Amino acid sequence: MSTGTTRLTPQPCHACGITTDHPVRVGEVHAASGPGRTLYACPAHTPRVPAVQTPAAALADALRRSRDFGTGV
Questions:
Q1: Please, where are the H alpha helices in the chain?
Q2: Which residues of the chain fall below pLDDT 70?
Q3: Stated pTM of the model
Q4: Using CB atoms within 10 A as the burial measure, which of 7, 26, 38, 57 is most buried?
Q5: Is residue 1 included in any domain, yes or no?
Q6: pLDDT of residue 48
Q7: Is residue 32 part of a domain?
């Protein structure tokens, strides 16, 4: 009988590197060639893993800073 929940396969924690049976998705890493990858953390490290910025968001931040502070990109 199905409970309606999806169980993830064990994954290494992005913060400590130890494989956890209860991975929490904390971000994605995009790749220029080939598929990217999903980052997981163990429940204990989930609040401490910094958000991974997408390339588009990084470019937008750099352009915003260059306008706000007059620095070149």
A1: 55-69
A2: 1-6, 52, 69-73
A3: 0.61
A4: 26
A5: no
A6: 81
A7: yes
